[in-house]
Write a structure and sequence with these properties.
The chain is about 50% helix and about 10% strand. It is built from 12 helices and 7 strands. The two termini are about 35 Å apart. With about 350 residues, it is mainly alpha-helical.
């Protein structure tokens, strides 16, 4: 009798080119899970429309995201790569879950409050209303931003995932997902697996090159702060050489040396050399030496990724075949879960 592998699901929005932080802190680690787990990797295009976007860019970025996934090591032969909107069940389950989700829980979400603030809105201290605090002209706070965590919960629970690789900024959303799964199970009997977070120990948090107190981000207005996996070698080197370091000249990983610590973290995550060994190797050397070596390491690591991506993005028929195969497997599992949920919630079975 074959033993079922644990199910791991993780998703990313198709919002442009992955950063080095996305690669080292997430995708590179996902690739190590393929042999011992049944893996589903989703491109969540429905989440991407909660903010202003251009349809043509969304289509282009979605296929690009798939190509980047594969180039970064997610083997379609050992995993299921799919697009969220291709699968029936995500929005259906999100609606069911929304009916057991208190609005206050959603208004307390840190990411919702941050996104609302950027549009000029503020969630009241009582968490019962949203006030317009001089919102930017033409801006609006759509319901999709509020409901985003419920759709994310549906993404996870639809596949009854055992664990979900998440960054620190997504832990709150996963907690809501776990709460909803437990609430549904309590009301309708055991249905959903309670997903556990999978947080890698190494390379989990790569910081901005210009403000090392903040995480490296695709959306950073200062593009010198972010290394993208498709940046050309000269641009990667330029960004790293202009990165913020710290006062003094000691190359050590310490709380008061965030810039240097970040560069050492990048090196360690790529090279596998321990921080202690790196510190020892840079005794008597300056920040310029550190930056040059980090640039060399980053460029060498991304060279095969970029070469593979350039091949894939030119082969649309191959990408479509990957998505067809991934969607077929994902849909089988989604239908199984959705059918069980529909029966337990009292929906009449569709005539055959």
């Amino acid at each position: 009798m074959s033993v079922q592998k644990p199910v791991i699901l993780t998703c990313a929005q198709p919002t442009g080119v992955l950063t080095l932080g996305n690669y080292l802190g997430a995708v590179k680690n996902w690739a190590t899970l393929l042999d011992d787990n049944t893996c589903y990797f989703g491109v969540v295009d429905m989440h991407a429309i909660t903010v202003k976007y251009t349809p043509a860019d969304l289509r282009k970025n979605t296929l690009s995201c798939v190509a980047q996934y594969i180039a970064c090591g997610l083997d379609p032969e050992r995993s299921n790569i799919f697009i969220q909107s291709h699968i029936i069940g995500h929005t259906e389950l999100a609606w069911l879950l929304s009916c057991i989700t208190p609005i206050g829980d959603l208004q307390r979400m840190t990411q919702f409050k941050e996104k609302a603030a950027k549009l000029g809105f503020k969630v009241s201290e009582e968490q019962t209303s949203i006030a317009n605090q001089g919102a930017r002209q033409g801006s609006s706070l759509n319901a999709g931003l509020l409901m985003y965590p419920v759709l994310m919960a549906a993404d996870i629970l639809l596949y009854n995932a055992d664990s979900v690789p998440v960054g620190n900024d997504q832990k709150q959303h996963l907690e809501l997902c776990r709460d909803l799964a437990q609430r549904f199970n309590h009301s309708y009997s055991d249905t959903f697996t309670i997903p556990e977070p999978f947080i890698p120990k190494t390379g989990a948090r790569i910081m901005s090159l210009q403000d090392p107190q903040r995480k490296m981000s695709k959306s950073d207005a200062n593009q010198n702060a972010t290394l993208h996996i498709l940046d050309k070698p000269d641009l990667l080197r330029k960004k790293i050489m202009s990165s913020v370091t710290d006062s003094g000249n000691e190359i050590v990983a310490r709380e008061d040396k965030a810039g240097v610590s970040n560069l050492l973290q990048i090196h360690t995550a790529i090279s596998g050399t321990s921080t202690a060994d790196l510190e020892a190797s840079f005794i008597g050397k300056g920040y310029g030496d550190l930056k040059k070596e980090v640039a060399d390491v980053v460029i060498a690591a991304l060279e095969p990724v970029q070469a593979r991506y350039n091949e894939l993005i030119q082969d649309k028929s191959y990408l479509e075949s990957v998505l067809k195969a991934g969607a077929t497997e994902a849909q089988k599992r989604a239908y199984k879960t959705l059918g069980k949920v529909y029966r337990k919630t009292g929906f009449v079975e569709r005539p055959r």
